[in-house]
Design brief:
single chain; 171 residues; mainly beta; three-stranded antiparallel sheet; 10 strands; 0% helix; elongated
Length: 171
C-alpha cells in the first residue's frame, strides 16, 4: 500500500526493497552504496554526472578500466591501469586516438592502422633528452642542430652559428 507522512520519517535502517536486485544503503553523511558484492552491475540510462571535492572517480578492480563506447557500443576506448602500467587502448587497429582542444583542433593524432603519430600546431615538438630512430628521419622544413653525430662517432659541428651545412647521400 501507500504510506504518506506530513512530517519526517526517521529510521535507523531504511530498506528500499527486500529483493537483492534493488538494495540501496544510505548513510547520514550523504554517502550512498549500491549493491552488496563485487560482481554487482549497475546500469544508468541518461546522463551521469559526478562531482567531487576530493579524489574524483576511483575505480578499484583487478583490471581497473574506464570504458567509453559510441552509440552502438562497437567502438571502445579504454583507459586503464594494470600493475604499474597505465594505458589508453582502442577496440581495434583502425581506431585513432586524438588529443583535441576545446575548439576541435587536433593537436596530436595517433593513427593506429598506419602506426604513425602526427603532432600539429605552431609550437612544434620539443623533446628533452635523446631521440632514437630505427628508421629514417625526414623533414619538409628546416632541421636545426648544433652537432650531428653518426654511429661511428663522426660529427658535423655547426659551432659558428651562422654557417649552414647539407649532407646528401652520405654513408
Amino acid at each position: 500500500g501507500t504510506i504518506r507522512a506530513q512530517g519526517d520519517i526517521i529510521a535507523d535502517n531504511y530498506i528500499v526493497s527486500s529483493s537483492l536486485t534493488y538494495v540501496t544503503t544510505s548513510f547520514s553523511d550523504g554517502s550512498t552504496k549500491f549493491g552488496d558484492t563485487q560482481d554487482d552491475t549497475h546500469q544508468f540510462t541518461g546522463s551521469f554526472s559526478i562531482s567531487s571535492s576530493a579524489n574524483g572517480v576511483n575505480i578499484h578492480s583487478k583490471y581497473a578500466q574506464l570504458q567509453l563506447t559510441d552509440d552502438g557500443g562497437t567502438d571502445k576506448l579504454r583507459i586503464g591501469q594494470s600493475g604499474d602500467v597505465g594505458y589508453i587502448k582502442t577496440s581495434d587497429a583502425s581506431n585513432d586516438i586524438r588529443f583535441r582542444r576545446s575548439d576541435n583542433f587536433d593537436i596530436m593524432e595517433m593513427d593506429m592502422s598506419a602506426e604513425t603519430t602526427r603532432i600539429s600546431g605552431s609550437g612544434g615538438l620539443k623533446v628533452i633528452g635523446d631521440i632514437t630512430a630505427s628508421g629514417d628521419i625526414s623533414s619538409s622544413g628546416t632541421m636545426i642542430s648544433s652537432v650531428i653525430t653518426n654511429e661511428s662517432g663522426g660529427t658535423i659541428n655547426n659551432s659558428g652559428g651562422n654557417s649552414a651545412f647539407r649532407v646528401k647521400g652520405a654513408t
